[in-house]
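User: Modeling request: complex.
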Amino acid sequence: MAALSQSHHLHSNCFSRLPTPKSKPLRLSSTRVRMSLQETGPSLAVVGVTGAVGQEFLSVLSDRDFPFRSIKLLASKRSAGKSVSFQNHSFTVEELTADSFNGIDIALFSAGGSISKEFGPIAVEKGAIVVDNSSAFRMVEGVPLVIPEVNPDAMEGIKVGMGRGALIANPNCSTIICLMAATPLHRHAKVKRMVVSTYQAASGAGAAAMHELELQTREVLEGKPPTCNIFKQQYAFNLFSHNAPVLENGYNEEEMKMVKETRKIWNDMDVKVTATCIRVPVMRAHAESVNLQFEKPLDEDTAREILKNAPGIVVIDDRSSNHFPTPLEVSNKDGVAVGRIRRDLSQDGNHGLDIFVCGDQVRKGAALNAVQIAEMLL
Amino acid sequence: MAALSQSHHLHSNCFSRLPTPKSKPLRLSSTRVRMSLQETGPSLAVVGVTGAVGQEFLSVLSDRDFPFRSIKLLASKRSAGKSVSFQNHSFTVEELTADSFNGIDIALFSAGGSISKEFGPIAVEKGAIVVDNSSAFRMVEGVPLVIPEVNPDAMEGIKVGMGRGALIANPNCSTIICLMAATPLHRHAKVKRMVVSTYQAASGAGAAAMHELELQTREVLEGKPPTCNIFKQQYAFNLFSHNAPVLENGYNEEEMKMVKETRKIWNDMDVKVTATCIRVPVMRAHAESVNLQFEKPLDEDTAREILKNAPGIVVIDDRSSNHFPTPLEVSNKDGVAVGRIRRDLSQDGNHGLDIFVCGDQVRKGAALNAVQIAEMLL
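Assistant: Request completed. Predicted assembly structure:
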């Protein structure tokens, strides 16, 4: 992967146009480390630290200079004992157990739904505030499902030091990326109906899927049969319907997350959403083609202005040079890019828009959003 | 490309499930050749024979056992003199000139819009029936725009031997693949509005673009900067808005082709269409996510039955094994595959469906459709 992920840095044409994370080198002086490992600040735990999102948790915590008193890196027995480098120090990964959460203020979970279901409540019981990246608790009533730029009020009153634990759910990556762009427009003209088609990266299925895409691509280029371990079919130079299980109604679970999570995050049970989720041979950023139907009129110039002023959004919409958002351009970036903003010719007047959105699935789609939630807890 | 296109054959999981062209070996006995180069049958000309579609014209003519008295292979001065192998014979490519069409009954054009504009009318003048794969004449009033399975009546009365030339336009590849699936449903329940998002292969930009995708992929895997000649940005492990010029209204030309050609082919000026056209790193087959709004109710089981019985359509819709159409599976195939057939939850009752369609862009999207048109001229 090294070569490939690096190439994603090197060859992104408009790399500089997107907002970079607060530019802080990952290698920090020991002074700096002493400063962040200070007496004040919360005690953190990162669950699933050896995974793609777990690793991204660490780099986002560093990039954003997240203050903490102590940090505990947790993973399964299999990974326990491994050493992980963080802020120029070497940490030993500890095995996740019920005792892991003694004295923990904030626990960032990204170890899959079953781990969250088993250990999330235990962590809360012990007084930790859990920010969970899995789908385990997203639709549970009373559990805030939060995109900080969209519905911060949903977690009102939940703070470190309030004397009790709590659960906060991180939405699905495709939902976060879509709603980052759709919400500012929704606030202005109220979205009645949304038709979404996704172009989802390998990273959504984890680091192993990214490795498999690279391996398969090498194999296909050499005329060899592709190795299919993570996905049951060829991914290289191909695309396929999202691998999530397909439900009774014909939608797959990924698509239903977009339908249901949108309603909960917008607190609008009437909004109509349909989605078709497709896996494309791209490494780590998702793209989404979003068709919007509004209750009130909204012309494209107003929409463009609204998006230019929206937090976390970068408008890339240069028609003359045919420069619009691409997954490569947002890879390893915080900003969600929006372009192809245009009046939908298939709707009357200014009641419809088509937009194209790209966001880093590992970063804003997962780790960054969770750390932003954690920042609101301080 | 050899290794890669071959790998597309070898590793397509469900290769056998799609209808293969009339299985006829490309190497034919000289008897067979004498038989097809007989006194009867039309005299053919293939314009742009050295291009990706031009080459596909030849293999489709062979696969379908198209009868002809003589065949003339035409290209630009640059390619003139090259030898092309066809039906086990070696043919010399001739330079395209005004005289090329003397005595030609049917001329298959795929050499770009400007060549069609210059030489199409000349060929017609000389009594040839031109089947043009470019966009030059598609929207010209009086020029039939034909998908044989959809609107054969549009070319009624145009036959070889009617004593005059004529122009027939081959629709845009994305339009053909979309309407192959949408038309049978439209006939049953009348499509009011269609929202399309495409996943388009390199082949749509020609053989050079397919080579560039393969070259870039090798370069990126080696950590080298990708060569960007055909496209101005990295295509390997990336995707981007279709490279067609963007118009005043914010749609690119590819998208407007889908909007306008659908109206003409369906002879329905009221049908509402919006499209977002995206280039994905796939070699030669397009995929399309299509959301349909109907005037009359149409439940998904009826829709599936209608599609199973539709000519040129293969339904691949296995929810339990998550097996749906993929570009790889339809590559080098005639059939257009349809799956993910489901009631659209964002519409009331049975007035909406979501479907996912894949078709070989070079074959049904171009060469096959043109040869099918030619067959109707006999």
